[in-house]
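Exercise 7.
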Amino acid sequence: MGWIYLLLGGLFEIGWPVGMKMAQLTGHRFLYLSVAVISMALSGYLLYMAQQTIPIGTAYVVWTGIGAIGTLLIGIFFFGDSAGVWRILSAFLIIAGIIGLKLAS
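Solution. The predicted structure, written as tokens, is:
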């Protein structure tokens, strides 16, 4: 169950930077800032739940990795961020590290 909490927490970790970006781009600042704050709270709580069965170091790296890679992909696909070779290669290195930690735990 810890890995499910961690995966969900990582997905909510994507929600808060996207909410902040949307608050800057639209006239619905309060709505998107509320989404960001709720996402932060849910993400943190789910990380807390995951750490009951997953070592803290592994849980934190996986949680932030999901958030980082997910946010990177949303930036590329929806906000026109650069998809340069070095950015993609670096993202794959993060993914490789996450997989390695999962296999080692």
